[in-house]
Fold this sequence. Notes:
- By secondary structure, this protein is α/β, with parallel strands linked by helices.
- The protein contains eleven helices and nine strands.
- It is elongated, with a radius of gyration of 19 Å.
- It starts with a helix and ends with a helix.
- Adenosine-5-diphosphoribose (APR) binds next to loops.
Amino acid sequence: MGDLIKKAAQDLIKSHYAIALTGAGISTESGIPDFRGPSGIWTKNPQAERKAYQSYQEFLADPKKWWEERLSGASLLGDLEKAKPNAGHFALVELERMGLLKCVITQNVDALHEKAGALNVIEYHGSVLKLRCVDCGSRFKQEEYNLEKLRAEGALPPRCPKCRGVIKTDGVAFGEPIPNDVAHRSVDETRKCDLMLICGTSAVVYPFANLPRLARQRKDGVPETIIIEVNADPTPLTEEKISDYLIRGKTGEILLRLVETIRRIREG
Ligand code: APR
């Protein structure tokens, strides 16, 4: 593993525009379960996964009922708002401060990259801290709405102050389109990058899993993008050789060692 970390450090130092893609695996060391790992939420509770696949259609069919159910049930992910970033999140912030990492595109809704101090984060699947109008796409902080009061007054679903559209949680449900602004920014960053560091994702959920394949597409006259995976297990990106190499292990440990190795190389 040491050799691969050294190789990744050299690749990052040589890169001009590196970005990171992250998934639930980077947050398990913060006590948040992932989905498809050995003790993942879907692995342990396939029934809950089936229910999650119906959620968006249920919202479209009856947003009032959807909100009432949501406000009376507990989140599968636990109390995300209490979670704290771990060494993996802080290491990516360090790479950003070193000027080596230009952007983080995350599937996680836990806002831990921002909590760690990251400046340029694209929340591809939304944020647990936000609400979003499904008509005009405007986003609001959760605390801008007193949802319990709206429920008590029978005034659910919450409405958008700009267009009166229906407000939903910002988290993107299965089958729900990725909001345009997020989808476009992610493709832009992917097209610009010459190195992609993919951390803690099984890379099986689309359209996010298309981003590494887009990065792999040859751009005329431009050297191939280097794609590095940091994950506990191989993924379809490893098997299909979309990634150049996999550093297998815990993101918290590996990303920290990556930052230390870059520092050592730079200090010469
Ligand atoms: N370090 C490295 N890898 C880890 C760690 C860790 N500490 N913990 C877990 N992993 C790996 C798991 O082995 C698995 O391969 O991270 C991966 C997490 O994959 P998933 O659980 O499938 O999570 P993710 O890829 O983010 O899921 C994508 O699916 O359920 C939806 O919307 C949800 O955003 C989520 C999307």
